[in-house]
Amino acid sequence: MHWKVCVVAILAFLVATEAERKLKSYQKIWGSRSNRALSCQANEFACKDNLLCIPNKWLCDIERDCYDGSDEQLNCPTDCSHANQFQCKNKECISRDFVCDGTRDCLDASDEVNCENFVCPEGEIKCDNFLCIEETWKCDGYNDCGDLWDERNCTASG
Ligand SMILES: [Ca+2]
Ligand SMILES: [Ca+2]
Ligand SMILES: [Ca+2]
C-alpha cells in the first residue's frame, strides 16, 4: 500500500515543519540572549518564571510556550476572543498561527477554508500555498513555505 506510506510521510513532514518554525524562533531568542540577563523587548512577554522572553503573538495562542505556562494563564479569555486565537466552526479554539497553514487543526478543518482571502498577521507574508511565514524568513535558506516559494527569486549575495 504505497499511497498510505506516502500520506504518513507527508503528515510527518507537515508536523516537522510546524515544529521547526517555532524552534527557529526559539533559537533566534536564545541566540540573541545568551550570556545576558533576561530583559525582554517591547514586543515580547517575560514569562513569570523569568526564564524566557516570548513574542507577544505567542500569548494566549493555546500553545504553552513558557515553561511555567504563564503565557496561557494571564487574562487569557476562554472563548477564543483573543487576537491570537481563532475559533473553529465547531467552537474549538486554536492558535491563529495554525489558520491556513496547510494542516488541519480544527477537527472540522474550518481553519483551512477560504485561505486565499485570509490576511496574514502583521510582519508576515503569504506563500503561494497561502501559508503565512515571518517576513524575515524569506530568502533565509530554509524552506518555510514547504514548496520553496520563499527561497525562489532570491538574489545571491554574501
Ligand atoms: Ca502560547
Ligand atoms: Ca491549520
Ligand atoms: Ca525561508
Summary?
This protein is α+β, with helices and mostly antiparallel strands.
Write the layout of secondary structure elements.
Blueprint: H1 2-33, E1 44-46, E2 53-55, E3 85-87, E4 93-95, E5 124-126, E6 132-134
Antiparallel strand pairs: 1-2, 3-4, 5-6
Bound molecules: calcium ion (CA) (3 copies).
Task: Describe it.
It is a single chain. The chain is α+β, with helices and mostly antiparallel strands and 158 residues long. The protein is built from one helix and six strands. The strands form three sheets. The chain has a two-stranded antiparallel ribbon with strand order 1-2. The protein has a two-stranded antiparallel ribbon with strand order 3-4. Strands 5-6 form a two-stranded antiparallel sheet. A hairpin with a 5-residue loop joins strand 5 (124-126) and strand 6. The protein starts with a helix and ends in a 24-residue tail after the last strand. Residues 98-99, 101, 103, 105, 111-112 line the site of one calcium ion. One calcium ion (CA) binds at residues 98-99, 101, 103, 105, 111-112. Disulfide bonds join 88-106, 100-115, 120-132, 127-145, 139-154. Residues 1-19 form the signal peptide. This is Low-density lipoprotein receptor-like. It is found in: Membrane.
What portion of residues is helical?
10-25%
Bound ions, cofactors and other small molecules, one mention each = calcium ion
Mean pLDDT: 83
Number of helices: 1
Radius of gyration: 17 Å
Number of strands: 6
The shape is: globular
Strand content: 5-15%
Biggest β-sheet: strands ordered side by side in the sheet: 1-2
Order of helices and strands: HEEEEEE
- Contiguous low-pLDDT stretches (5 residues minimum) are none
Largest sheet: 2 strands, antiparallel
**Termini Cα gap:** 46 Å
Q: Which structural class is indicated by helix and strand composition?
A: alpha+beta
Main location: membrane
Subcellular location: Membrane
Keywords: Disulfide bond, Glycoprotein, Membrane, Receptor, Repeat, Signal, Transmembrane, Transmembrane helix
Protein name: Low-density lipoprotein receptor-like
